Amino acid sequence: MTRRSHRMPKSRALRAGRIALAMLAALAAASCERAAQNMYDQPRTRPYRQNPLFPDGSSARVPPAGAEPYASGPAADPSGGRLGRQEAERQAAADRAQAIPGPVTLAMLRHGRELYAGYCLPCHSPAGDGDGRVVRRGFPAPPSFGEARLLAAPDRHIYDVISDGFGVMARYGNRIEPADRWAIVAFVRALQLSQHAELAALPPQARARAQAALAADGAGDVHTGGADDAGAGGSGDARNREPTR
Ligand code: HEC
């Protein structure tokens, strides 16, 4: 056999080079996978297996006293860790607040309105006067948010009623996070304002519009907040009829 000393044709050389490169890449990838695999293969304990590390010989450990589960509550949403701690602290701070924390923004009011519609409106009604559908079907009527006592009540009272319940009203502290409860309080305040705003407190443009509307209506129709809301729950009255719409 004679040794062929002259070079391979160019195209064959190129192809050989490519194949060599591909093989190198494959090798590199395989060793990467090996390195990553080592993380799975490190010593660890399996559920329900014996483990000589602990005096009781069990791999199942009881959490230390006072341990907080990170898989539930506000910390669970943002996947635990630092974000979870921050969220838990944010909610704890909200829970300590004595009045609506921070400035009331439009976004907060919209959020509060959404929550109110889901959690409160069925009893308290869209206007907050306590004439919700559940009440029309026989549940005890809540007081109107427009009642003088509730107009004067501090924010924290409404927050506490949501958290702990009140009389026959159930508590929502186990379902609504503190920051969300404050959003509802802000919306309840807005509802109160919507039914009981002082003309003088309105911004000039809104005041002009309200005055024009009142003049057109004849001021006699203005809701006086009283007599018709009082006599609660006789069985034959309008409360027990479905609205005709
Ligand atoms: C199943 C009906 C129902 C739902 C839902 C409900 N409430 Fe009530 N709420 C009541 C009743 C009834 C009362 C009056 C309780 C009593 O005096 O025994 C009341 C009372 C209140 C009061 C007045 C407490 C006081 O000092 O007199 C506030 C404020 C209030 N609710 C806010 C809310 C908010 C906010 C929500 C939603 C998170 C809500 N409620 C959901 C029925 C309900």
UniProtKB/TrEMBL annotation:
The keyword Plastid does not apply. This is Cytochrome c domain-containing protein. Residues 212-230 have a biased composition (Low complexity). Residues 1-35 form the signal peptide. Residues 107-192 form the Cytochrome c domain. Residues 84-93 have a biased composition (Basic and acidic residues). PANTHER family: LIPOPROTEIN-RELATED, QUINOL:CYTOCHROME C OXIDOREDUCTASE MEMBRANE PROTEIN.
